[in-house]
Amino acid sequence: MKPWENYIRRVEPYVPGEQPKNKNVIKLNTNENPYPPAPGVEKARKAFSDDSLRLYPDPAASSLTEALADYYGLAPEQVFVGVGSDDVLAMAFLTFFNSEKPILFPDITYSFYSVWADLFRIPYERPALDADFRMVKEDYYQPNGGIVFPNPNAPTSLLEPLSFIRDILDHNQESIVIVDEAYIDFGGESAIPLLKEYDNLLVVQTFSKSRSMAGMRIGYAMGNPLLIKALNDVKYSYNSYTMNRPSLVFGVEAVKDDAYFKETLGKIIKTRQEAIEKLTELGFTCLESASNFLFAAHKTVPAEKIFKELKEEGIFVRHFNSARIDNYLRITIGTPEEMEKLYQFLARYQ
Question: What is the pLDDT of residues 228-250, one digit of tens each?
């Protein structure tokens, strides 16, 4: 080992879902939206001036924060935007989780949480989900340096009710509670209304799933102005220009078209329900989903076998080789046509 290698910060990195170079595949592995962004985004793209790219973007991202604030009935000072919700969450970890007490998040959840905690040297504990993959609220009554969890959870797809979040907040008024709502638009009740009651709550959402803009990398957090100011102070101390000009312009257009937004959500929810029924007929058990994916296990065939054979067929789903969930597949809801091809292949396991 070279002497300078002793000074390298080493972490076990997050492993994103595979992005196949072959475009002639059915891609149901990274929870992308199968439908295009709002029509206004395409119009804005065609009208976008390339000359503006020589100029720095607005560091405050005012146009987008104002559009989001107006949409959710908040003040602009209550909204923070970043390069996807991963950037926003990482900034929140860096900003709010600075206690010697461990932060808490479930043992089966978004695997980036432990990566950020290790990267930023944040102590953490992972209370186990129960036998039904549900969070146990009493596990979060202990002293902690902060709490973070997705709702709906990933990869399990399960939603906790708003009463559960309220209970967690009531028992943790001395630490920041972050609710990661990447999938909330697909069937859950957002915790945003609780922002009026709890000044230690931060709600994080993204354009990557429900707004069909994973490629633009837009995420945002909502909370009381003190939390948002703290996030901006850290951002300006790290990278003032986190949002590029196209993302700001296209993001505003996506927020404007609420009718299209709700139309595509309705399509995905309808296809999801059909998928649950069809997969059940094909010998799978699916957890109750409030997201744009299903967490499914076949009653007799190992998930890893199905995963590999699907991939050979050009159908990509996600498999996690982790304790308790290694016999499940995470299947993104695609178009009805894509799902039909999936069902046709899975029929061989009946």
Answer: 999 999 999 999 999 999 999 99
